[in-house]
Specification:
With 79 residues, the chain is mostly helical. The chain is built from four helices and no strands. The longest helix is centred in the first third of the chain and has 27 residues, at 4-30. The relative contact order is 0.13.
Length: 79
């Protein structure tokens, strides 16, 4: 069973990741970057998540990747 300190640390990392994802999405939405640049930013957010939570790429792919795909589809009019 995790300690209170471990839970507190995990919560802090989750908030940090959410902020990073939100900032990345805002950056992509509000700039005139290319699709390739936007994809690199999305990939960077995933790498950041893996540094915070090693081995949890599948969770990122389940929770955040659909948001990035939807954003890229809408911004760049992809089908």
């Amino acid at each position: 069973m995790p300690t209170k300190e471990e839970i507190k640390d995990e919560d802090k990392k989750i908030r940090y990741l959410r902020r990073m994802v939100d900032l990345t999405i805002t950056l992509i939405m509000s700039s005139d970057m290319t699709l390739d640049e936007a994809q690199r930013h999305a990939a960077g957010a995933r790498e950041f998540a893996l540094r915070l939570f090693p081995g949890k790429g599948d969770v990122f792919d389940l929770v955040y990747a659909p948001r990035f795909r939807r954003l890229l589809r809408e911004k760049f009019l992809l089908s």
